[in-house]
Design goal:
Radius of gyration: 14 Å
Oligomer: single chain
Strand content: 25-35%
Order of helices and strands: EEEHEHEHE
Number of domains: 1
CATH class: Alpha Beta
Shape: globular
Largest sheet: 6 strands, mixed
Structural class: alpha/beta
Number of helices: 3
Number of strands: 6
Distance between the termini: 38 Å
């Protein structure tokens, strides 16, 4: 399956989903003006991925600086897909947050509680 790669902009995160090595990464701000349009190609890729014969464990690195409410629904859909895939293979979430960003840490805990996927919380120290 082809890798999904979207470059980061001022309003959208870097996206790199590589099914071949089982690593997915989302990094940066997620405040697209039209969230559904931005997440469309991501949803389509995940729909195809969900139908694949997945055999290797999946590690997802979330490194959000911030995401808005409009993006939350799309992130919810993403977690739903991950939960479905977790019925076939192990899925681990690495949730990065900046030191003292209690809101982002709490956000990760909320997603973990909702989807019951294994989360690792990784604090990034600001210098």
């Amino acid at each position: 399956m082809e890798k999904l790669l979207l470059q980061q902009t001022a309003k959208t995160p870097y996206i790199c989903f590589d099914a071949n090595n089982g690593t997915f990464e989302v990094a940066g701000k997620c405040i697209p003006e039209f969230a559904i349009e931005f997440f469309g190609p991501i949803k389509n890729w995940l729909d195809r991925f969900e139908q694949e014969d997945v055999s290797c464990p999946i590690v997802v690195n979330f490194k959000f600086d911030y995401y808005n409410t409009a993006s939350s629904k799309c992130i919810l859909d993403f977690f739903t897909k991950l939960k479905n895939v977790s019925q076939k293979v192990n899925v681990t979430i690495n949730w990065y947050y900046k030191e003292d960003d209690d809101d982002m840490l709490e956000s990760g805990r909320d997603w973990e509680e909702l989807f019951r996927l294994p989360f690792n919380y990784i604090e990034e120290i600001c210098t």
